[in-house]
Amino acid sequence: MPENYTDPSGNTEAFRTFTQTPEATAPAESPSRPPLIIGAAVVAVLLVALVAWLALR
After folding, report:
1. Distance in angstroms (rounded) separating the CA atoms of residues 48 and 41
2. pLDDT score recorded for residue 6
3. What is the pLDDT of residue 57?
4. pLDDT band for position 54 (50/70/90)?
5. How far apart, in whole angstroms, are the C-alpha atoms of residue 18 and residue 22?
6. Element (H or E) spanning 23, and its range?
7. pLDDT per position as a tens digit, 5-40
8. Contact of 44 with 51, CB cutoff 8 Å
9. Nearest to 38, CA basis, from 28, 46, 50
């Protein structure tokens, strides 16, 4: 941390400014989970099919 860093909790005015910033009040949008889960399931099925195909060859 730089030496000139001021902790917002150490000063009431700085803390109020810190808590009223748009970044602090609005949470970041997280990516949607269902596409990630579906993609992982497709990859898992393909891996199982590939292993089964190699085992039965």
Report:
1. 11
2. 66
3. 86
4. very high
5. 9
6. helix 22-25
7. 766 666 777 777 777 767 644 556 777 888 899 999
8. no
9. 46
Look up residue 7 and give its two tokens.
């902790």
Question: What dihedral do alpha carbons 51, 52, 55, 57 form, nearest 10°?
Answer: -110
**DSSP percent split of the chain into helix, strand, coil, nearest 5:** 70, 0, 30
Place of tokens 């602090």: 24
Amino acid making up residue 30: S
pLDDT for the residue numbered 24: 44
Q: Which two tokens stand for residue 15?
A: 């803390």
Residues in the chain: 57
Rounded distance between C-alpha atoms, residue 21 and residue 26, angstroms: 9
- Name every residue whose Cβ is closer than 8 Å to that of residue 8 and which is 6 or more positions away in sequence: 14, 15, 17, 18, 19
